[in-house]
Amino acid sequence: MSRQNIGIIGAGRVGAVLGAAFARSGHKVIAAVGVSAASKSRAELLLPGASLLPADKVAAAADLVLLAVPDDALPGLVKGLVETGALRRGQIVAHTSGAHGLAVLAPVTGVGAEPLALHPAMTFTGTEADLARLPGISFGVTAPDHLRETAAALVADLGGVVEWIAEERRPLYHAALAHGANHLVTLVNEAMDRLRDAGVHRPEQVLAPLLGAALDNTLRLGDAAITGPVSRGDAGTVEKHLHALESVAPSSVPPYLALARRTADRVIAAGRLRPIDAEPLLDVLGSHSRASERAA
């Protein structure tokens, strides 16, 4: 596709990096919004030559307006851009939200602009290191039929792969990513905290090879990758885990119980643990769940 003059509204971790990637592919990032000291610094590093302007000025100057703001801020931003007359016929207005689709951009179509939902399935630090992670990642894209070719070309310019997401499935798509990635960070940090409680001085060194292998096996093998005491129905071991957590870190008990029960459900459904063999384990999980609820 032809090269675009791009405006970035939201020079945060995602917007600044995508802007830099577009610039590397031959587009021109002409302006960006940077309010905080961090976003201004990020724009200076990743978007050199882009003018820092108010949102309406950025939108008015661009052919492609990229909205990279928090999900809850997006509707108000779109409404404000339309009301100030910053948008015009023929512009592409794209947002990077995973949770939203095209509905949030409905106001822009009233002035003849083209809506596009363009979400990178990646976690960002807002540094140059992110640029090396972009090639080959998936972008959850929702677009009008007539804009699909343009959307695919933009994703290709970013080095990504298109995954078409139906409008009504955007919340489910985003929930899956948040559940997998964001909650994984919480889970790993919980594991590192408990290892420190156990006297391990470098928990990241202990966990890195274990978690790397677990993730690789899971992506290749699915539920067949599940190992550990729950998958074996080892009720006594799980009971010891729970007593240890209740003593040292009671706030870790509810998430352990929830994940252990879900793991049990999956291995039972996969036929790896017979329901009759799972009964002692489920009894342990149930009794501790009830005790946890009473203590809450």
UniProtKB/TrEMBL annotation:
Provide the transmembrane region boundaries: none
Read off the Gene3D superfamilies from this record. NAD(P)-binding Rossmann-like Domain, ProC-like, C-terminal domain
Would you say which domain of life the source belongs to?
Bacteria
One Pfam annotation reads DUF2520
The DUF2520 domain extends over: 138-263
InterPro entries (UniProt xref): 6-PGluconate_DH-like_C_sf, DUF2520, NAD(P)-bd_dom_sf, OxRdtase/DH_put_Rossmann_dom, TM1727-like_C_sf
Record-linked SUPFAM superfamilies: 6-phosphogluconate dehydrogenase C-terminal domain-like, NAD(P)-binding Rossmann-fold domains
Putative oxidoreductase/dehydrogenase Rossmann-like domain segment(s): 2-120
| Protein name, as recorded | DUF2520 domain-containing protein
The upper taxonomy is:
Bacteria, Bacillati, Actinomycetota, Actinomycetes, Micromonosporales
